[in-house]
Amino acid sequence: MNHKLVESIKKDAIPLKDFNDYSPLMKKVAEAKFVLLGESSHGTSEYYQIRAKLSKQLIQEKGFTFIAVEGDWPACQHINRYIKSYDNRYKNAREALTAFGRWPAWMWANEELIDLIEWMKTYNQDRPKEEQVGFYGVDVYSLWESMEEIIKYLEKTNSPDLETAKKAFACFEPFNRDPQLYGVSGSFYSEDCKDEVVKLLTEITLEKKKYTSYYEEGKLNLEVNAIVAANAENYYRTMVTDDTESWNIRDRHMVEVLNKISSFYGEKAKGIVWEHNTHVGDARATDMAEVGMVNVGQLLREQNADDEVFIVGFGTHRGTVIAADEWGVDFERMIVPPAQEGSWEDVMHKAGPHDKLLIFDKNNHDSYTDSIGHRAIGVVYNPRYEQYGNYVPSIMSERYDAFIYINNTNALQPLEVERVLL
């Protein structure tokens, strides 16, 4: 056991007994333009609950203007339009969350998110449009859904670019919305739609000033969907041949969209980002850097001043989690075994089997510069084999600005609802 590291944690960590104990964290983000809130799994209830509470406080007390999540742009637009009362198609947040239909839907269609969405809607009600907070998805997967949104917009506005969009969408039709099939075709047989989507993105980007918006945030929606289409095409074409480059395409895309959202909100823009630790925790402090991988946390730190980006990691020692044992199959409630001996989560547990907050600063930075295994659970997970691939070597004081440790965690509560037909 690393006794020195355990003693450092005992000395530096703040026990978390109630939400007031997060006050030191709030003080640290005073100048931040982006606060990144991680998670060590996509299926842990406490991570969502704590991030929701922190997000409310950041919005109320620090003037943050939007939440951006590791979700699809088109689906998250349903939530954004609900909380900003742009339309009344949904009666409540539970109904709005049925917009998340693509696997793994549980990441956002869950009980834990309902309260935050209703709170954001209430918060916005008495504010002018320019002061309302938004909710956005910054992921890259929604190729077909984003193309549909583009066509819908161009049809409504009688745009001369409609035929270009239809031609691009038609190129993808033979692949029956199967990303793997498209990726193989594009990578190995040079049968791709790159030229079509690049032409579409170019026309929309260069001519965006000419577009009339028939609904609020319409121009932003159009431009981001065009970016998604172009980057998703590149991502799916690359993923079958180069895991590292496809990862980089995805994370660079997420930062590109974050910057588009920030530009939309102007000088007052301050974003809260909800993503997995592997995306928000600076890749340069992990073994990801050795193979040339970058991520959102690294890129935002490189693009902004030191005090403008604040990264919070999350982790647990044991509990339960929602995940699947292979891609695309039904989720399960799984046991998360006690953390691997010698890992970061194991050391945190040995420093006291209670919840705790650790803030890294110049006074304690050097105590946490040894590389140590740090648990990461994805949407696909097998507890029996996690020692072979679920621990990322990390320099914790360089990967994060703070770390929230929850000793025992519980599985997320996915919604059991039928999708609303629109």
Report on the structure:
The chain is of the alpha/beta class and 422 residues long. It folds into two domains: 3-137 and 270-409, EreA-like (biosynthetic domain) (EreA/ChaN-like  fold), CATH 3.40.1660; 143-267. Helix content is 43%, strand content 14%. The protein has 16 helices and eleven strands. Strands 1, 2, 3, 4, 5, 6, 7, 8 and 11 form a nine-stranded mixed sheet that branches. It has a two-stranded antiparallel ribbon with strand order 9-10. Strand 6 and strand 7 (332-336) form a beta hairpin. Helix 7 (143-156) runs antiparallel to helix 11 and helix 10 runs antiparallel to helix 11 (218-239). The longest helix is centred in the middle third of the chain and has 23 residues, at 243-265. The radius of gyration is 21 Å and the shape is globular. It starts with a helix and ends in a 13-residue tail after the last strand. The model is unreliable at 418-422 (pLDDT under 50).
Q: Could you provide a short overview of the structure?
A:
With about 425 residues, the chain is an alpha/beta fold.
